[in-house]
């Protein structure tokens, strides 16, 4: 029987198993609180389907330097390799 870790942990058994594997409390809690929907990945558009401006904005968000001089293909490459 899994110990009750309070309302902040949604899946106590999963949390305990992850802690026994050596995960930190924070990481184990994050994983134990994630709902298992069976879905993988997000719904973001492919980089190739985005405009240069959208790619530029994403590059700015993640902190890629030199982005203002990059072409669309260069931005895609920089984002994938960041």
Automatic annotation (TrEMBL):
Residues 53-79 form the Rho termination factor-like N-terminal domain. Residues 1-29, 45-60 have a biased composition (Basic and acidic residues). Residues 1-82 are annotated as: Disordered. It comes from Algoriphagus jejuensis. This is Rho termination factor N-terminal domain-containing protein.
């Amino acid at each position: 029987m899994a110990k009750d870790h309070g309302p902040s942990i949604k899946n106590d058994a999963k949390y305990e198993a992850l802690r026994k594997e050596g995960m930190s409390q924070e990481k184990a809690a994050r994983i134990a609180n994630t709902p298992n929907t069976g879905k993988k990945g997000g719904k973001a558009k492919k980089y190739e389907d985005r405009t240069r401006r959208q790619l530029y904005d994403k590059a700015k968000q993640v902190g890629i330097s030199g982005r203002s001089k990059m072409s669309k293909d260069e931005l895609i490459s920089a984002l994938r390799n960041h």
